[in-house]
Amino acid sequence: MAEFDVDLFVIGGGSGGVRAARIAAGHGARVMIAEEYRMGGTCVIRGCVPKKLFVIGSHVRHEIEDAAGFGWTIPSMSFDWATLIANKDKEIARLEAAYTANVEKSGAQIVKSRAVIEDAHTVRLLADDKKIRAKYILIATGGAPNHGAAIPGIEHVISSNEAFHLKQLPKRIVIQGGGYIALEFAGIFAGYGSDVTVIYRGDNILRGFDEDVRAHVRAEMEKQGITILTGCTVTKADRHGESFTTHLSNGSSLASDQVMFAIGRHPSVANLGLEKAGVAINPRNGGIAVDHFSKSSVDSIYAIGDVTHRFNLTPVAIREGHAFADTVFGNRTVQVDHAYIPTAVFSQPEVGTVGLTETEARAQFSHVDIYKTTFRPIKATMSGRDTRVLMKLVVDGSTDRVLGCHIVGDCAAEVTQVVAIAVKMKATKADFDATIALHPTAAEELVTMRTPTARHVRQAAE
User: Fold this and answer.
1) Which pTM does this prediction carry?
2) Contact by Cβ (8 Å): 267, 309
Protein backbone atom coordinates (compact mmCIF):
# COMPACT_ATOMS: atom_id res chain seq x y z
CA MET A 1 0.00 0.00 0.00
CA ALA A 2 1.37 3.39 -1.04
CA GLU A 3 2.18 5.79 1.77
CA PHE A 4 0.31 8.63 0.03
CA ASP A 5 -2.84 8.64 -2.07
CA VAL A 6 -1.68 11.74 -3.97
CA ASP A 7 1.48 13.82 -4.24
CA LEU A 8 -0.40 17.10 -3.89
CA PHE A 9 -3.76 17.98 -2.40
CA VAL A 10 -4.94 21.52 -3.17
CA ILE A 11 -7.65 23.10 -1.02
CA GLY A 12 -9.39 25.77 -3.09
CA GLY A 13 -10.25 25.89 -6.78
CA GLY A 14 -9.51 29.55 -7.40
CA SER A 15 -6.97 31.01 -9.80
CA GLY A 16 -3.95 30.26 -7.60
CA GLY A 17 -4.97 26.74 -6.63
CA VAL A 18 -5.90 25.84 -10.19
CA ARG A 19 -2.57 27.08 -11.57
CA ALA A 20 -0.63 25.13 -8.94
CA ALA A 21 -2.64 21.96 -9.63
CA ARG A 22 -2.19 22.17 -13.40
CA ILE A 23 1.54 22.90 -13.28
CA ALA A 24 2.19 20.21 -10.66
CA ALA A 25 0.25 17.66 -12.72
CA GLY A 26 2.27 18.73 -15.75
CA HIS A 27 5.41 17.88 -13.81
CA GLY A 28 4.04 14.36 -13.28
CA ALA A 29 2.55 14.75 -9.81
CA ARG A 30 -0.64 12.98 -8.76
CA VAL A 31 -2.91 15.89 -7.90
CA MET A 32 -6.31 16.25 -6.27
CA ILE A 33 -8.02 19.62 -5.84
CA ALA A 34 -11.07 20.26 -3.64
CA GLU A 35 -13.51 23.12 -4.14
CA GLU A 36 -16.65 23.45 -2.05
CA TYR A 37 -18.37 26.18 -4.10
CA ARG A 38 -17.54 26.81 -7.78
CA MET A 39 -14.32 26.34 -9.73
CA GLY A 40 -12.69 29.65 -10.52
CA GLY A 41 -12.71 31.16 -7.07
CA THR A 42 -13.46 34.74 -6.11
CA CYS A 43 -11.90 36.35 -9.17
CA VAL A 44 -13.82 34.38 -11.77
CA ILE A 45 -17.08 33.76 -9.95
CA ARG A 46 -17.74 36.86 -7.83
CA GLY A 47 -14.79 39.19 -8.19
CA CYS A 48 -12.56 40.58 -10.91
CA VAL A 49 -14.29 39.14 -13.97
CA PRO A 50 -17.98 39.90 -13.24
CA LYS A 51 -16.87 43.24 -11.77
CA LYS A 52 -15.09 44.20 -14.98
CA LEU A 53 -18.13 43.15 -17.01
CA PHE A 54 -20.30 45.39 -14.84
CA VAL A 55 -17.83 48.25 -15.23
CA ILE A 56 -17.80 47.94 -19.02
CA GLY A 57 -21.60 47.98 -19.11
CA SER A 58 -21.83 50.98 -16.83
CA HIS A 59 -19.67 53.03 -19.23
CA VAL A 60 -22.30 52.83 -21.97
CA ARG A 61 -24.46 55.63 -20.58
CA HIS A 62 -21.47 58.01 -20.65
CA GLU A 63 -20.62 56.92 -24.18
CA ILE A 64 -24.16 57.70 -25.32
CA GLU A 65 -24.08 61.07 -23.59
CA ASP A 66 -20.71 61.93 -25.14
CA ALA A 67 -21.84 60.92 -28.63
CA ALA A 68 -23.77 64.15 -29.18
CA GLY A 69 -20.55 66.14 -29.37
CA PHE A 70 -19.44 63.95 -32.26
CA GLY A 71 -22.63 64.51 -34.24
CA TRP A 72 -24.66 61.50 -33.15
CA THR A 73 -28.34 61.74 -32.31
CA ILE A 74 -29.32 58.68 -30.31
CA PRO A 75 -32.93 57.85 -29.33
CA SER A 76 -33.86 57.59 -25.67
CA MET A 77 -31.87 54.85 -23.97
CA SER A 78 -33.16 52.22 -21.60
CA PHE A 79 -31.44 49.70 -19.38
CA ASP A 80 -32.55 46.33 -18.03
CA TRP A 81 -30.73 45.09 -14.92
CA ALA A 82 -32.12 41.56 -15.22
CA THR A 83 -30.61 41.18 -18.69
CA LEU A 84 -27.21 42.27 -17.38
CA ILE A 85 -27.36 39.74 -14.56
CA ALA A 86 -28.49 36.90 -16.83
CA ASN A 87 -25.76 37.55 -19.40
CA LYS A 88 -23.13 37.88 -16.68
CA ASP A 89 -24.24 34.56 -15.18
CA LYS A 90 -23.98 32.91 -18.60
CA GLU A 91 -20.42 34.14 -19.09
CA ILE A 92 -19.34 33.13 -15.59
CA ALA A 93 -20.78 29.65 -16.13
CA ARG A 94 -18.76 29.39 -19.34
CA LEU A 95 -15.58 30.38 -17.54
CA GLU A 96 -16.24 27.97 -14.70
CA ALA A 97 -16.63 25.14 -17.19
CA ALA A 98 -13.37 26.17 -18.86
CA TYR A 99 -11.52 26.16 -15.54
CA THR A 100 -12.89 22.71 -14.75
CA ALA A 101 -11.98 21.34 -18.17
CA ASN A 102 -8.44 22.73 -18.03
CA VAL A 103 -7.79 21.14 -14.64
CA GLU A 104 -9.12 17.79 -15.79
CA LYS A 105 -7.08 17.95 -19.02
CA SER A 106 -3.95 18.43 -16.94
CA GLY A 107 -4.62 15.10 -15.22
CA ALA A 108 -5.57 16.54 -11.83
CA GLN A 109 -8.72 15.24 -10.13
CA ILE A 110 -11.43 17.61 -8.88
CA VAL A 111 -13.57 16.82 -5.86
CA LYS A 112 -16.59 18.95 -4.99
CA SER A 113 -16.30 19.14 -1.23
CA ARG A 114 -15.02 21.21 1.62
CA ALA A 115 -11.70 19.84 2.79
CA VAL A 116 -10.20 20.20 6.26
CA ILE A 117 -6.72 19.34 7.43
CA GLU A 118 -6.33 16.48 9.89
CA ASP A 119 -2.54 16.49 10.18
CA ALA A 120 0.58 17.35 8.18
CA HIS A 121 -0.30 14.85 5.43
CA THR A 122 -4.02 14.15 5.80
CA VAL A 123 -7.14 15.98 4.65
CA ARG A 124 -10.74 14.99 5.23
CA LEU A 125 -13.48 15.55 2.65
CA LEU A 126 -16.64 16.61 4.45
CA ALA A 127 -18.91 15.53 1.59
CA ASP A 128 -18.29 11.85 2.27
CA ASP A 129 -16.00 11.92 5.34
CA LYS A 130 -13.25 10.36 3.25
CA LYS A 131 -9.61 10.88 4.26
CA ILE A 132 -6.87 11.50 1.71
CA ARG A 133 -3.17 11.15 2.43
CA ALA A 134 -1.00 13.64 0.55
CA LYS A 135 2.75 14.19 0.44
CA TYR A 136 2.10 17.93 0.18
CA ILE A 137 -0.92 20.07 0.97
CA LEU A 138 -1.47 23.48 -0.63
CA ILE A 139 -3.97 25.88 0.94
CA ALA A 140 -5.46 28.30 -1.60
CA THR A 141 -8.78 29.19 0.01
CA GLY A 142 -8.55 32.93 -0.69
CA GLY A 143 -10.41 35.55 1.30
CA ALA A 144 -13.93 36.68 2.11
CA PRO A 145 -15.68 40.01 2.72
CA ASN A 146 -15.26 41.42 6.21
CA HIS A 147 -18.05 43.59 7.61
CA GLY A 148 -15.99 44.67 10.62
CA ALA A 149 -17.41 45.10 14.11
CA ALA A 150 -21.04 44.08 14.63
CA ILE A 151 -23.51 46.95 14.55
CA PRO A 152 -27.30 46.99 14.90
CA GLY A 153 -28.80 45.95 11.58
CA ILE A 154 -25.64 44.36 10.20
CA GLU A 155 -27.81 41.52 8.92
CA HIS A 156 -29.31 43.93 6.38
CA VAL A 157 -25.95 44.82 4.85
CA ILE A 158 -24.74 43.19 1.63
CA SER A 159 -21.19 42.63 0.39
CA SER A 160 -19.81 42.52 -3.14
CA ASN A 161 -20.83 38.84 -3.23
CA GLU A 162 -24.53 39.69 -3.05
CA ALA A 163 -24.17 42.76 -5.27
CA PHE A 164 -23.64 40.50 -8.27
CA HIS A 165 -27.02 38.84 -7.72
CA LEU A 166 -29.39 41.68 -6.80
CA LYS A 167 -32.85 41.20 -8.26
CA GLN A 168 -33.08 44.83 -9.25
CA LEU A 169 -30.92 47.92 -9.55
CA PRO A 170 -31.20 50.04 -6.37
CA LYS A 171 -32.29 53.62 -7.02
CA ARG A 172 -30.25 54.70 -3.99
CA ILE A 173 -27.33 52.87 -2.42
CA VAL A 174 -25.03 53.61 0.50
CA ILE A 175 -21.58 52.01 0.23
CA GLN A 176 -19.20 51.97 3.19
CA GLY A 177 -15.53 51.71 2.26
CA GLY A 178 -12.88 53.67 0.42
CA GLY A 179 -10.77 51.05 -1.35
CA TYR A 180 -10.84 49.08 -4.58
CA ILE A 181 -14.19 47.33 -4.18
CA ALA A 182 -16.15 50.22 -2.68
CA LEU A 183 -15.10 52.69 -5.36
CA GLU A 184 -15.50 50.23 -8.20
CA PHE A 185 -19.08 49.48 -7.18
CA ALA A 186 -19.77 53.16 -6.59
CA GLY A 187 -18.89 53.80 -10.22
CA ILE A 188 -20.82 50.76 -11.40
CA PHE A 189 -24.07 51.69 -9.66
CA ALA A 190 -23.74 55.37 -10.57
CA GLY A 191 -23.12 54.43 -14.20
CA TYR A 192 -26.33 52.43 -14.33
CA GLY A 193 -28.26 55.32 -12.80
CA SER A 194 -28.24 54.79 -9.02
CA ASP A 195 -27.86 57.63 -6.54
CA VAL A 196 -24.63 56.66 -4.73
CA THR A 197 -23.21 57.75 -1.38
CA VAL A 198 -19.79 56.52 -0.24
CA ILE A 199 -18.97 56.49 3.49
CA TYR A 200 -15.34 56.21 4.57
CA ARG A 201 -13.78 56.48 8.01
CA GLY A 202 -10.48 58.03 6.86
CA ASP A 203 -9.75 61.55 5.71
CA ASN A 204 -9.75 60.53 2.04
CA ILE A 205 -10.46 57.52 -0.15
CA LEU A 206 -7.85 55.05 -1.52
CA ARG A 207 -5.65 54.79 1.54
CA GLY A 208 -2.15 53.70 0.57
CA PHE A 209 -2.27 55.22 -2.91
CA ASP A 210 -0.38 58.32 -4.01
CA GLU A 211 -1.88 61.47 -2.49
CA ASP A 212 -2.37 63.10 -5.90
CA VAL A 213 -4.21 60.01 -7.10
CA ARG A 214 -6.47 60.05 -4.04
CA ALA A 215 -7.40 63.70 -4.50
CA HIS A 216 -7.88 63.41 -8.25
CA VAL A 217 -10.13 60.35 -8.12
CA ARG A 218 -12.29 61.88 -5.42
CA ALA A 219 -12.76 65.11 -7.35
CA GLU A 220 -13.64 63.24 -10.54
CA MET A 221 -16.13 60.97 -8.77
CA GLU A 222 -17.82 63.93 -7.13
CA LYS A 223 -18.13 65.62 -10.54
CA GLN A 224 -20.19 62.59 -11.60
CA GLY A 225 -22.63 63.15 -8.75
CA ILE A 226 -21.31 60.53 -6.35
CA THR A 227 -21.44 61.78 -2.75
CA ILE A 228 -18.34 60.95 -0.72
CA LEU A 229 -18.51 61.42 3.06
CA THR A 230 -15.22 60.92 4.89
CA GLY A 231 -14.31 60.91 8.57
CA CYS A 232 -17.38 58.91 9.59
CA THR A 233 -18.72 55.36 9.71
CA VAL A 234 -22.04 53.54 9.62
CA THR A 235 -23.22 52.84 13.17
CA LYS A 236 -26.66 51.37 12.50
CA ALA A 237 -28.81 50.15 9.59
CA ASP A 238 -32.60 50.15 10.00
CA ARG A 239 -34.84 48.35 7.54
CA HIS A 240 -38.29 49.59 6.61
CA GLY A 241 -39.78 47.08 4.19
CA GLU A 242 -37.69 47.47 1.03
CA SER A 243 -35.86 50.61 2.13
CA PHE A 244 -33.21 51.42 4.73
CA THR A 245 -32.09 54.19 7.02
CA THR A 246 -28.35 54.27 7.59
CA HIS A 247 -27.15 56.09 10.71
CA LEU A 248 -23.68 57.62 10.69
CA SER A 249 -21.20 58.36 13.45
CA ASN A 250 -21.45 62.09 12.72
CA GLY A 251 -25.08 62.05 13.81
CA SER A 252 -26.65 62.20 10.34
CA SER A 253 -28.67 59.54 8.56
CA LEU A 254 -29.30 58.50 4.97
CA ALA A 255 -32.24 56.84 3.23
CA SER A 256 -31.50 54.20 0.60
CA ASP A 257 -32.74 51.07 -1.13
CA GLN A 258 -29.58 49.11 -0.39
CA VAL A 259 -26.63 49.22 2.02
CA MET A 260 -23.33 47.67 1.01
CA PHE A 261 -20.12 47.28 3.02
CA ALA A 262 -16.76 46.97 1.24
CA ILE A 263 -14.37 47.75 4.07
CA GLY A 264 -11.92 44.93 3.46
CA ARG A 265 -11.49 41.18 3.19
CA HIS A 266 -10.08 38.67 5.62
CA PRO A 267 -8.20 35.42 4.86
CA SER A 268 -10.39 32.31 4.76
CA VAL A 269 -8.58 30.39 7.50
CA ALA A 270 -11.47 29.45 9.80
CA ASN A 271 -12.38 25.80 10.34
CA LEU A 272 -9.64 24.44 8.09
CA GLY A 273 -7.93 22.46 10.85
CA LEU A 274 -4.88 24.71 10.85
CA GLU A 275 -4.47 24.61 14.62
CA LYS A 276 -4.74 20.83 14.64
CA ALA A 277 -1.96 20.54 12.07
CA GLY A 278 0.21 23.19 13.70
CA VAL A 279 0.01 25.73 10.88
CA ALA A 280 0.92 29.17 12.22
CA ILE A 281 -1.04 32.35 11.56
CA ASN A 282 0.76 35.62 10.87
CA PRO A 283 -0.20 37.82 13.86
CA ARG A 284 0.20 40.99 11.80
CA ASN A 285 -2.39 40.26 9.16
CA GLY A 286 -4.35 37.15 10.18
CA GLY A 287 -3.23 35.16 7.15
CA ILE A 288 -1.26 31.93 7.06
CA ALA A 289 2.38 32.68 7.84
CA VAL A 290 4.66 31.56 5.00
CA ASP A 291 8.26 32.00 3.88
CA HIS A 292 9.51 33.29 0.51
CA PHE A 293 8.63 29.95 -1.08
CA SER A 294 5.06 29.94 0.33
CA LYS A 295 5.90 27.22 2.86
CA SER A 296 3.99 27.36 6.15
CA SER A 297 5.34 26.46 9.58
CA VAL A 298 4.68 22.82 8.64
CA ASP A 299 7.15 21.56 6.02
CA SER A 300 4.56 19.63 4.01
CA ILE A 301 1.93 22.40 3.98
CA TYR A 302 2.11 25.46 1.74
CA ALA A 303 -0.24 28.43 1.21
CA ILE A 304 -0.63 30.92 -1.63
CA GLY A 305 -2.79 33.87 -2.59
CA ASP A 306 -5.18 35.86 -0.45
CA VAL A 307 -5.21 33.30 2.38
CA THR A 308 -1.67 34.51 3.20
CA HIS A 309 -2.83 38.15 3.10
CA ARG A 310 0.41 39.29 1.46
CA PHE A 311 -0.62 40.85 -1.85
CA ASN A 312 -4.29 40.18 -2.50
CA LEU A 313 -4.24 40.24 -6.28
CA THR A 314 -5.22 37.40 -8.60
CA PRO A 315 -2.06 37.52 -10.77
CA VAL A 316 0.04 37.30 -7.60
CA ALA A 317 -1.81 34.17 -6.48
CA ILE A 318 -1.29 32.65 -9.93
CA ARG A 319 2.42 33.47 -9.89
CA GLU A 320 2.78 32.04 -6.37
CA GLY A 321 0.95 28.86 -7.37
CA HIS A 322 3.14 28.38 -10.41
CA ALA A 323 6.32 29.03 -8.43
CA PHE A 324 5.25 26.53 -5.76
CA ALA A 325 4.61 23.79 -8.32
CA ASP A 326 7.90 24.43 -10.13
CA THR A 327 9.85 24.46 -6.87
CA VAL A 328 8.31 21.38 -5.25
CA PHE A 329 7.61 19.23 -8.30
CA GLY A 330 9.55 20.70 -11.22
CA ASN A 331 13.09 20.62 -9.86
CA ARG A 332 13.29 24.40 -10.32
CA THR A 333 13.71 26.69 -7.33
CA VAL A 334 11.49 29.69 -8.05
CA GLN A 335 10.93 32.54 -5.64
CA VAL A 336 8.26 35.13 -6.45
CA ASP A 337 9.49 38.72 -6.52
CA HIS A 338 6.77 40.82 -4.90
CA ALA A 339 8.45 44.15 -5.69
CA TYR A 340 6.91 46.58 -8.20
CA ILE A 341 3.60 44.80 -8.69
CA PRO A 342 1.26 46.84 -10.92
CA THR A 343 -2.32 47.25 -9.78
CA ALA A 344 -5.49 48.89 -11.04
CA VAL A 345 -8.68 50.23 -9.53
CA PHE A 346 -11.52 49.99 -12.03
CA SER A 347 -13.21 52.98 -10.53
CA GLN A 348 -14.56 55.73 -12.74
CA PRO A 349 -12.12 57.25 -13.53
CA GLU A 350 -9.79 54.27 -13.70
CA VAL A 351 -6.53 54.09 -11.74
CA GLY A 352 -3.32 52.34 -12.76
CA THR A 353 -0.26 52.38 -10.56
CA VAL A 354 3.11 50.66 -10.18
CA GLY A 355 5.99 51.29 -7.81
CA LEU A 356 6.43 53.84 -5.07
CA THR A 357 4.16 56.71 -4.18
CA GLU A 358 5.70 60.14 -3.70
CA THR A 359 5.44 59.75 0.09
CA GLU A 360 7.12 56.33 0.03
CA ALA A 361 9.90 57.53 -2.24
CA ARG A 362 10.67 60.57 -0.11
CA ALA A 363 10.92 58.33 2.96
CA GLN A 364 13.38 55.99 1.24
CA PHE A 365 15.48 58.25 -1.01
CA SER A 366 17.33 61.49 -0.30
CA HIS A 367 16.61 63.07 -3.69
CA VAL A 368 13.21 62.64 -5.34
CA ASP A 369 11.99 64.34 -8.51
CA ILE A 370 8.31 64.51 -9.40
CA TYR A 371 6.94 64.84 -12.92
CA LYS A 372 3.21 65.47 -12.97
CA THR A 373 0.63 66.67 -15.42
CA THR A 374 -3.14 66.91 -15.62
CA PHE A 375 -4.89 67.55 -18.89
CA ARG A 376 -8.20 67.36 -20.66
CA PRO A 377 -8.36 64.19 -22.78
CA ILE A 378 -8.92 64.73 -26.49
CA LYS A 379 -12.32 63.06 -26.38
CA ALA A 380 -13.58 65.61 -23.84
CA THR A 381 -12.75 68.51 -26.17
CA MET A 382 -15.61 67.33 -28.37
CA SER A 383 -17.95 65.69 -25.87
CA GLY A 384 -17.78 68.61 -23.47
CA ARG A 385 -17.43 66.32 -20.45
CA ASP A 386 -15.74 67.96 -17.48
CA THR A 387 -12.92 65.52 -16.78
CA ARG A 388 -9.14 65.51 -16.58
CA VAL A 389 -6.41 62.86 -16.75
CA LEU A 390 -3.60 62.64 -14.19
CA MET A 391 -0.16 61.25 -14.99
CA LYS A 392 2.71 61.23 -12.51
CA LEU A 393 6.22 59.83 -12.44
CA VAL A 394 8.25 59.48 -9.25
CA VAL A 395 12.01 59.51 -9.95
CA ASP A 396 15.13 58.93 -7.87
CA GLY A 397 16.90 62.26 -8.27
CA SER A 398 20.30 60.69 -7.66
CA THR A 399 20.20 57.79 -10.15
CA ASP A 400 17.40 58.99 -12.48
CA ARG A 401 15.60 55.65 -12.01
CA VAL A 402 11.81 55.76 -12.34
CA LEU A 403 10.49 54.55 -8.98
CA GLY A 404 6.76 54.86 -9.57
CA CYS A 405 4.11 55.66 -12.16
CA HIS A 406 0.56 56.73 -11.32
CA ILE A 407 -2.21 57.28 -13.89
CA VAL A 408 -5.86 58.25 -13.52
CA GLY A 409 -8.05 58.24 -16.61
CA ASP A 410 -9.38 56.08 -19.42
CA CYS A 411 -7.27 52.96 -20.10
CA ALA A 412 -5.03 53.71 -17.10
CA ALA A 413 -4.73 50.00 -16.33
CA GLU A 414 -3.76 49.08 -19.89
CA VAL A 415 -1.05 51.76 -20.01
CA THR A 416 0.26 50.86 -16.55
CA GLN A 417 0.70 47.20 -17.47
CA VAL A 418 3.21 48.20 -20.15
CA VAL A 419 4.90 50.88 -18.04
CA ALA A 420 5.33 48.27 -15.29
CA ILE A 421 7.77 46.40 -17.53
CA ALA A 422 9.99 49.47 -17.77
CA VAL A 423 9.75 50.16 -14.04
CA LYS A 424 10.57 46.53 -13.23
CA MET A 425 13.58 46.73 -15.54
CA LYS A 426 14.80 49.80 -13.63
CA ALA A 427 14.37 52.18 -16.54
CA THR A 428 15.53 55.75 -16.02
CA LYS A 429 13.76 58.98 -16.75
CA ALA A 430 16.30 59.43 -19.55
CA ASP A 431 15.06 56.14 -21.06
CA PHE A 432 11.53 57.51 -21.01
CA ASP A 433 12.72 60.80 -22.55
CA ALA A 434 14.58 58.96 -25.31
CA THR A 435 11.39 57.16 -26.35
CA ILE A 436 9.56 58.89 -29.19
CA ALA A 437 5.99 59.81 -28.37
CA LEU A 438 3.08 57.97 -29.96
CA HIS A 439 0.72 60.76 -31.04
CA PRO A 440 -2.08 61.52 -30.43
CA THR A 441 -2.41 59.51 -27.24
CA ALA A 442 -2.77 60.31 -23.58
CA ALA A 443 0.13 57.99 -22.77
CA GLU A 444 2.58 60.10 -24.76
CA GLU A 445 2.64 62.47 -21.79
CA LEU A 446 4.75 59.86 -19.98
CA VAL A 447 7.62 60.46 -22.42
CA THR A 448 7.16 64.20 -22.98
CA MET A 449 7.24 65.49 -19.40
CA ARG A 450 10.66 67.18 -19.36
CA THR A 451 10.71 69.46 -16.33
CA PRO A 452 10.15 68.31 -12.75
CA THR A 453 7.11 69.82 -11.10
CA ALA A 454 8.72 69.29 -7.70
CA ARG A 455 12.15 68.35 -6.33
CA HIS A 456 12.61 67.03 -2.81
CA VAL A 457 16.00 66.87 -1.10
CA ARG A 458 16.25 65.39 2.36
CA GLN A 459 19.02 66.93 4.42
CA ALA A 460 21.36 64.46 6.10
CA ALA A 461 21.10 64.32 9.88
CA GLU A 462 23.97 66.07 11.63
Assistant:
1) 0.94
2) yes
